[in-house]
Amino acid sequence: MFDxxxxxxxxxxTNIDFAAIAREGIAGVVHKATxxxxxxxxxxGTNRGKALDAGLRFGSxxxxxxxxxxxxxxxxxxxxxxRAGELLTLDFEGNNAGPSMTLEEARAFVTLxxxxxxxxxxxxxxxxLKDLLNGHADPVLVNCPLWIAQYGPAPVxxxxxxxxxxxxxxxxxAGVDPQPVAGMHCDRDRFSGAAAELPGxxxxxxx
Length: 207
What we know:
The protein has helices at 18-23, 44-53, 69-80, 103-117, 127-133, 198-204, and strands at 2-8, 28-35, 39-40, 57-63, 87-91, 122-125, 146-149, 166-170, 187-191. The chain is α/β, with parallel strands linked by helices. The protein has one domain: Glycosidases (TIM Barrel, Alpha-Beta Barrel). The protein has an eight-stranded mixed beta barrel, surrounded by five helices.
């Protein structure tokens, strides 16, 4: 297990020193790309290019909302134009600005991704998913590698998963002894395996 990834969005801006991030041992960046059926993160393209230029692995995520899941997945794929080796993710959490994505909409989202690229995307989730599952494993979502968000000393898995792949252990302030990355306080994520295993996993959820 090691601190492998940071995840960022337009809230982090474009003045990010990706070369310094790479020098600090971070292996990959996952950037917000889209939300719902119409929002595109304005910094996605710029930061994607800078991260790749710095030699970092790159991935994207879609923030799910209470709209048709298949339509959201299609919008996400059309926007990012998935490139070989770029990780794909559904961010499945409560939406403070409107209706939240349902389990049914999340199933439709990940199923369309699987139909298009032949692989299940990563599922980023935490207490919101646990509450919706209500003690019952979801037969579709459980196919997705789990990226769990939990800022305590250790993650507690939702029903249906026997392991986590990524663990977002801090948002830059909450969590046990959060440290900045290249002077930037941001979401930090641990990978469950060794550094040598990360490239293989990344490819397994990439276009």
